């Protein structure tokens, strides 16, 4: 059975690209903002990993990730942030909560898949 990924990005072309790259190996659910993504979680859905853009309007990636990580229900779901921000390393290190991983845009598909697989393996080994 395929692992389920929740992919959140406000850029439709990036959502389509990520879905195309990852849907062969994963069951992908795509949402174009943090509000819809969190609503999907609150509807009782539980992905194996969340892949989210950091810079989105309304409910940005940091706010979305914070709400996931402080939640009793979702805090153990690995979160991988994507961003084109030049100061991404600094932004992630200054977050008042732990992010499981992050990657700069543009990304290489094989590196993204490798990062996802690594996070899923870490998650699985800690929840056996």
- The rounded Rg comes to 13 Å
What's the helical proportion of residues?
A: 40-55%
What is the count of β-strands? 5
Oligomer: single chain
Number of helices: 5
Categorize the overall geometry.
globular
The structure class reads: alpha/beta
Can you offer a commentary on this structure?
This protein is an alpha/beta fold. It is built from 5 helices and 5 strands, in the order E-H-E-H-E-H-E-H-E-H. The chain is globular, with a radius of gyration of 13 Å.
Quick structural overview:
The chain has five helices and five strands, in the order βαβαβαβαβα. It has helices at 12-22, 34-42, 61-70, 88-93, 109-126, and strands spanning 3-8, 26-31, 49-53, 79-83, 101-104.
Q: What order do the helices and strands come in, and which of them pair?
A:
Blueprint: E1 3-8, H1 12-22, E2 26-31, H2 34-42, E3 49-53, H3 61-70, E4 79-83, H4 88-93, E5 101-104, H5 109-126
Parallel strand pairs: 1-2, 1-3, 3-4, 4-5
Helix pairs in contact: 2-3
Characteristic terms for this protein:
five-stranded parallel β-sheet; 42% helix
